[in-house]
């Protein structure tokens, strides 16, 4: 009788352990499935198609980067003023770097761009190409003050209006660079004005 009770107890214990082990395994499977679902959802969110307003903004951001980069290159080569040259080179460096971010983000969001982006044809570039000396410096810096004031207003609007979280993140983190560009352009503008008055 005692022997039978021992077998019964051992059998009950084994069944209990089997159920617990099975439950743990099922729990592990559920956790793994949840992880895969979370990862899968994350991927879809990342590749979400932009609405028309966010697309328009990103296209303008891309064109703005190309324009500022190209204007900076022209002026950096033509000017003899160190402050203007340094500012122009800063624009080339910063807007080239930002252009890569914009193109990568557009590609992520289903707006693939050609690898060799064309120059943005604009009147500003044509105008600066036909100028030199102090007139070139003043015109370029005045353009940059005006352009960056407009860009900052557009980026501030997009921070509030963006529907896509990645676009909002990009906009918020680019805004301080544009504000720094405006500040430095205004400093150079003041310096050029002072220099022209002392001549």
Summarize the structure.
The protein is an all-alpha fold and about 200 residues long. It has 2 domains: about 45 residues; about 150 residues, Ferritin (Up-down Bundle). The chain is about 85% helix and about 0% strand.
Distance between the termini: 119 Å
CATH architecture of the largest domain: Up-down Bundle
Q: Using only CA atoms, what is the Rg? A: 30 Å
| Count of helical regions | 6
Strand content: under 5%
Class computed from helices, strands and strand pairing: mainly alpha
List keywords for this structure.
mainly alpha, 6 helices, 2 domains, elongated, Ferritin, 199 residues
Structure description:
With 199 residues, the chain is mostly helical. The protein has 2 domains: 1-46; 50-198, Ferritin (Up-down Bundle), CATH 1.20.1260. It is built from 6 helices and no strands. The relative contact order is 0.11.
List the helices and strands and how they pair.
Layout: H1 2-46, H2 52-78, H3 82-108, H4 123-129, H5 133-161, H6 165-198
Helix pairs in contact: 2-3, 2-4, 2-5, 3-6, 5-6
């Amino acid at each position: 009788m005692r022997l039978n009770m021992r077998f019964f107890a051992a059998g009950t214990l084994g069944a209990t352990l089997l159920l617990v082990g099975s439950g743990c395994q099922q729990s592990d499977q559920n956790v793994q499935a949840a992880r895969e679902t979370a990862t899968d959802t994350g991927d879809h969110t990342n590749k979400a198609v932009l609405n028309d307003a966010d697309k328009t903004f990103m296209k303008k951001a891309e064109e703005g980067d190309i324009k500022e980069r190209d204007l900076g290159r022209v002026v950096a080569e033509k000017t003899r003023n160190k402050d203007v040259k340094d500012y122009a080179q800063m624009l080339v460096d910063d807007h080239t770097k930002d252009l890569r971010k914009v193109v990568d983000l557009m590609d992520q969001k289903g707006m693939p761009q050609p690898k060799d982006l064309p120059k943005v044809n604009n009147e500003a570039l044509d105008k600066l190409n036909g100028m030199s000396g102090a007139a070139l410096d003043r015109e370029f810096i005045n353009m940059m003050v005006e352009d960056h004031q407009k860009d900052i207003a557009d980026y501030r609007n997009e921070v509030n209006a963006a529907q896509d979280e990645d676009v909002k993140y990009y906009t918020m983190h680019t805004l301080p660079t544009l504000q720094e560009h405006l500040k430095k352009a205004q400093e150079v503008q003041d310096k050029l004005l002072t220099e022209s008055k002392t001549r």
